[in-house]
Amino acid sequence: MYRPLSLFVGLRYTRSRRRNHFISFISLISTLGIALGVVVLITVLSVMNGFHKEVRERILGMASHGDVRALDGRMRDWEEAMVLASQHPRVIGAAPYVEGQAMLSHRREVTGAVIRGVDPALESAVVDVAAHMIAGELSDLEAGRFRVILGRELAQILGVSIGDKVTVIVPQVTVTVAGSMPRLKRFTVAGLFEVGMGEYDRGVAIVHIQDAAVLQQLGDAVTGVRLRLDDVWQARRVAFELAESLQGRYRVLNWTDYHRNFFAALKMEKRMIGLLLFFIVVIAAFNIVSTLVMMVVDKQSDIAILKTFGASPGQVMRIFIVQGATLGAIGTAIGVAGGLVLALNIESAVAAVEQAFGIQFIDPSIYYIAKLPSDVQLIDVAMVGIGAFLLSLLMTLAPAWRAYRTQPAEALRYE
């Protein structure tokens, strides 16, 4: 009895059984519509986050978190650069590398690829190539043995397997008495890896760092030093800090620089799909307008009596705002709870649907994954829930304003 009049009457209208069952039906539809829209939005955003996480992890399986390079492409004092970079508190691993473009040939098959020279003893400290090996081991690379580890698709293009020979041709020439000859070297295939991204599986060949240096005529120099951080999301800030501490002697990159346009496209895609799906909530929220308009018409005499007994127009307006906000809050709460449950169990739900109907949503041979990934981020859940509730609250203003303008004399004229 001590509750404010607007809150008391608004909640009572929400709970009361209505003479007009159509109003009750519209109220139920609007609540369930908001709940369904929130469930769909949370689930889709979580699945998109899962795919983005999967792609990011696969990229970081071959691309380091950070990269320190010489300005001229030849880092001769790379040991010093490793020590300086390792002094940063967020750097937990460092390893030198040599990288260059080359052509790989086997019999009549020829294709381009990136030749990456690594130190097998240090490479696992910066990337997870070993976790993606499907044949052989990274330790099979030995200096002077001229062995190579190929991506699975690259090996299929060349038609090679373990033990076969491939000819590596680099875009440099050696001057001999017979004229200028391209530099080439035969390597033995020692292993295969599969990351799940064509950019790497089709375009990268890994050799020992000393063999790559010989091939590129770098001597004791390397292309740069790769870094691993304790937090991938701090890569950009760490890159700036390292660039300042190294006093401009080297160029410092981070993993987002390698695929800037790709990650920007993923971010834009998530925003646009989220915006489009939010219109499901918008459409459902419009039903709240219909519900409240019919409620205002149905409660004309009640509004007039309340005003006659001293209720202010503002109090009457807040009654219907409370009622609409209650419907929106109930729908949002149900939607958030349902969305979290579905997003957290999407893998088992999809598996059950596939088994029940004998279909397959994700083909592992195409997408390189056998399950539907999901990554629930609380910031997305919070934004969807708050957005749905605020939209519901906004939709109450027009019907509440109509109740505000109700004249008691006009409403009670035919009572």
Describe the structure in your own words.
The chain has a 6-stranded mixed β-barrel. The chain is built from 17 helices and 10 strands. The two termini are 29 Å apart. The radius of gyration is 32 Å and the shape is elongated. The protein has helices at residues 5-15, 21-59, 78-86, 120-123, 152-158, 198-201, 209-216, 235-245, 255-258, 260-298, 300-308, 313-344, 346-357, 364-367, 378-395, 397-404, 408-411; strands at 66-70, 91-106, 109-118, 133-135, 147-151, 165-176, 179-193, 204-208, 224-229, 250-254. The protein folds into 2 domains: 5-57 and 263-411, no CATH class; 66-256, no CATH class. It is an alpha+beta fold.
Q: How many domains?
A: 2
Instruction: Quote the beta fraction.
Output: 15-25%
Total strand segments: 10
Count every helix, treating DSSP H or I runs of 4 or more residues as helices: 17
Biggest β-sheet description: 6 strands, mixed, barrel
Q: What shape does the CA trace take?
A: elongated
N/C terminus separation: 29 Å
Mean pLDDT figure: 82
What is the chain-wise order of helices and strands? Answer: HHEHEEHEEHEEHEHEHEHHHHHHHHH
**Helix percent band:** 40-55%
Strand order of the largest sheet: 2-3-8-5-7-6
List low-confidence stretches.
Answer: none
Which value, in Å, is the CA radius of gyration?
A: 32 Å
Helix-strand category: alpha+beta
